[in-house]
């Protein structure tokens, strides 16, 4: 099974009215800027000009807001993978796409990406986060499967697929601490560097890495189209906001 299809109507989570969406967006920004522990209902209410009771009415607790943040984030990522996989069928291309995507999230859906990444350890074993954990596990299993298929086809060198998957995720997870979307490094260039380094480490024919990394190549184009389609459909939590 590949990434889960979106529910009818393209929704990535619970049905939300505009006020509820505004609250969750403000919560996401706050977590990205100062972390979960530094975020409280009082500050959110003040920012939005509403009462704390309104927030409680819509969400109940901060934990529930965190769950929705994480689940919505992972559903968006799985939806993008589904689009990419429809266009790219080879294991090398699919693996390169995972790396391109992982880097581009520092610009696309950046606020939710930072909020997700800085609090990922809180997601690991908290009660009530089972759906979040399942979605994250589904994404990880897709990468492991691509690695296994590539090895079986003689495209990738044999190795520990779980360990290599963790290495891939680890290489991009802390980018939020140093990557500045307004800085001198363009995200496409950073993605190309990451892809070439990682793919050269697993490919049997290492010379292919440069083509897969090419910021103007097929893989990069498909990834860019997939994330652009997500933004156009409102699946990007930062849609309408300038990444920063």
Automatic annotation (TrEMBL):
Molecular function terms, GO-annotated: DNA-binding transcription factor activity; transcription cis-regulatory region binding
Ranges for domain HTH tetR-type: 17-77
SUPFAM superfamilies (alphabetical): Homeodomain-like, Tetracyclin repressor-like, C-terminal domain
Ranges annotated as DNA-binding: 40-59
Tree of life domain: Bacteria
UniProt keyword list: DNA-binding, Transcription, Transcription regulation
Protein name: DNA-binding transcriptional regulator, AcrR family
């Amino acid at each position: 099974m590949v990434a889960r299809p979106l529910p009818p109507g393209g929704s990535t989570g619970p049905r939300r009215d505009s006020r509820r969406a505004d609250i969750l967006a403000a919560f996401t920004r706050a977590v990205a800027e100062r972390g979960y522990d530094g975020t409280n209902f009082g500050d959110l209410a003040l920012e939005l000009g509403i009462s704390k009771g309104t927030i409680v009415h819509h969400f109940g607790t901060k934990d529930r807001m965190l769950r929705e943040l994480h689940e919505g984030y992972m559903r968006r990522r799985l939806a993008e993978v589904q689009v990419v996989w429809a266009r790219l069928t080879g294991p090398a291309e699919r693996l390169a796409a995972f790396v391109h995507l992982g880097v581009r999230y520092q610009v696309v859906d950046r606020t939710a990406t930072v909020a997700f990444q800085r609090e990922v350890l809180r997601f690991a074993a908290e009660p009530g986060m089972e759906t979040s954990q399942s979605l994250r596990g589904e994404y990880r299993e897709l990468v492991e499967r691509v690695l296994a298929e590539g090895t079986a086809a003689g495209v990738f060198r044999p190795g520990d697929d779980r360990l290599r998957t963790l290495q891939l995720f680890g290489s991009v997870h802390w980018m939020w601490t140093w990557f500045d979307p307004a800085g001198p490094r363009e995200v496409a260039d950073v993605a190309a560097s990451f892809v070439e380094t990682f793919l050269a480490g697993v490919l049997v024919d290492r010379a292919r890495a440069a083509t897969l990394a090419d910021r103007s190549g097929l893989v990069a184009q498909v990834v860019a189209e997939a994330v652009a389609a997500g933004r156009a459909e409102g699946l990007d939590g930062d849609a309408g906001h300038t990444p920063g």
